[in-house]
Amino acid sequence: MASLILMMNNTGYCSESFNSLQSATSDEDMVEIAGATLDFSSTDDVPPLDRDHGAGIGNGLKEAPKLMDFLDEPLPGVGTYEDFNTIDWVREKSKDRDRHREIASQSKESTWALMKSISDAFSGWLLMLFVGLMSGALAGGIDISAHWMTDLKEGVCLSAFWFNHEHCCWNSNENTFQERDKCPKWKSWAELIIGSNDGPFAYIMNYVMYVCWALLFSFLAVSLVRAFAPYACGSGIPEIKTILSGFIIRGYLGKWTLMIKTITLVLAVSSGLSLGKEGPLVHVACCCGNILCHLFTKYRKNEAKRREVLSAAAAVGVSVAFGAPIGGVLFSLEEVSYYFPLKTLWRSFFAALVAAFTLRSINPFGNSRLVLFYVEFHSPWHLVELVPFVLLGIFGGIWGAFFIRANIMWCRRRKTTRLGHYPVLEVLVVTAVTAVLAFPNSYTRMSTSELISELFNDCGLLDSSQLCNYANVSDIERGSNALPDRPASHDVYTAMWQLALALVFKMLITVVTFGMKVPSGLFIPSMAVGAIAGRLLGVGMEQLAYYHHDWVLFRGWCSPGADCITPGLYAMVGAAACLGGVTRMTVSLVVIMFELTGGLEYIVPLMAATMTSKWVADALGREGIYEAHIRLNGYPFLEPKEEFSHKTLAMDVMRPRRSDPPLSVITQDGMSVEEVETLITDTSYSGFPVVVSHESQRLVGFVLRRDLVISIENARQRQDGVVSTSQIFFTEYTPPQLPSSPSPLKLRGILDLSPFTVTDHTAMDIVVDIFRKLGLRQCLVTHNGRLLGIITKKDILKHMAQIANRDPDSILFN
Predict the structure, then answer these.
(1) Is residue 772 within 8 Å of residue 644, measured between CB atoms?
(2) What is the C-alpha separation between 8 and 96, in angstroms, rounded?
(3) Cα–Cα–Cα angle for 394, 396, 399, nearest 5°?
(4) pLDDT tens readout for residues 239-285
């Protein structure tokens, strides 16, 4: 990053050139992220051939009048970006340095200016406090609502309908320890409608009500998303990654998206679909960060600064999703952030801390924990167990690669066939299939978070789960809650068959669920698949150790009557392996799982399974699920982890190609307003190089299309005498004009005098590196100072797609 800042400091951007510009402040366009305004005015880089016009002032010529230069007066919209375009990181960082220099110089002049300087320095921490508080409060509300509505599919609490099953029974003094899952105050729908919960008719009634509630919740979710906030669907993490890399998607982090995503996330999770709320919570937290940025000028008006806030907000999202503040910070650093300076690390840490504290204060699960599946293990693991842990890693990698290919294939089919025209019908059909198949199996009927909690659980004397109903429990001393390895009973074998069926069901249904037009996270379904596989392997190892404790494999550390194998630990390792296989997370994933268990001694098994999972998945396919969805949607995302190893030159990638028409350029003088407007109308380019003349093609600078359009429109309204035949000048000095000529238009203030350039023989791996590290939108190609062409981010992505034998036209945006 130090090299990045050094390069930015040497780009020749003028100082004090951004102070008089404004930005759009509509909350609706939260990611227009339209703040920045640009004036690249400088007097040091002016070509000497501008300066000899004054020599010709004489008879028949009038001295150039004082022209309006937009360097001096703010123009709303100049320097902002259009939707589905990429920001210029170098320009934004330069603007922030200019603002900081001005504040620092003014702080020495008066006490009031000093107070403003202190307030400006403190505003970042204050914003992080607000983001943490707001995100934590929303996450607590989502957790409580989803828990209640999930239980509503099965029954209702008579004493207080807003209580879920667990809270309802807590307040009851009538239920016994043996029947603690049943209490008089909680009534199933069969009991309410037909007065009995026994018999086939009652079962059918509960079945029908379960499916009806699931269909109602999913219908409300998809209808709200479709009607009010189309961007509220999906996980949100692929788009967040793209936005953090500098792309603009207007409205993606707006008020409506936040409100609808929060409501529909509760509905989607409660419907029983195979999805989680953890990914969407990252989107929700980023919406909070983006909305709160409007309270502070330096974040509202600067794209790069706002993305620092969004990086911290992504950490907050994971912090409240898993109750893992440190894991959240590492997730933002490893997985989603494009630019992550050290101060963003500190602020992310603070915001994640505040969010976790807020969620802990709300206590959504009533157990003083931040997540439903917090667990503590009491038995250490043995070195021999690394073998099954590595096997779980291999399974996680294979599952991850299979899931990504199958899901992308299904999503592409949704995009290219009539299936995509009926999102509501698709959601209802998938919900109906999920509910009908899930209800008969108790492990698929319960919410996925509860399933993971049960699979992670280390069986004790007080557990009533079917998974813990081993034989000979009555013969065990009840002096402690820990139990030795013991033979599996009929109930345990039944549970194993149910879990095996649940594994197949979850693996298949998650493929078609992720990517539908409802909020859908992938963390929890992936963890559920791994946890089921891990628990099955764990119980198998436990029974192997019990019946064959004299084998060399177990001799010396697993004696009869000892608690050797912890199946819950295998479930946790399997969950980490499958999530790592799908997302390719490593460090952050291990830390998140460690924070979930609170046990340092289980880090090595988690690391072994996670790394194995990543190696296996990378061998079968290089992309994680989020990168695959970014590519599927055609977003211009230059993956920092992907290496460019081909020997091509800038001249091979630049436009125009040999068969293309010549490059569209603007001369620094001699073009009329009408000619420039015709050029803008006839092309769709984001900007134009400015040259000395068409003959010399000597490069002067670069001007953005949006700035040009806004400046000409404003000049027609505010400057007298500007007509279609008026000359446009980008020179420092305006040449003398004939008395009869219309007023000229000076637009030097919007000209970037120091655009990035490379020569035509620059290796493409260096060009790609420059684009990645500096966040460029475009780069001009020259030969001996003459302009030859231009390379945009889209050109690079198309070139990389061609090399990888992919369709280059899949890159839709620049």
Answers:
(1) no
(2) 12
(3) 110
(4) 999 999 888 898 899 999 999 999 999 999 999 999 998 889 999 99
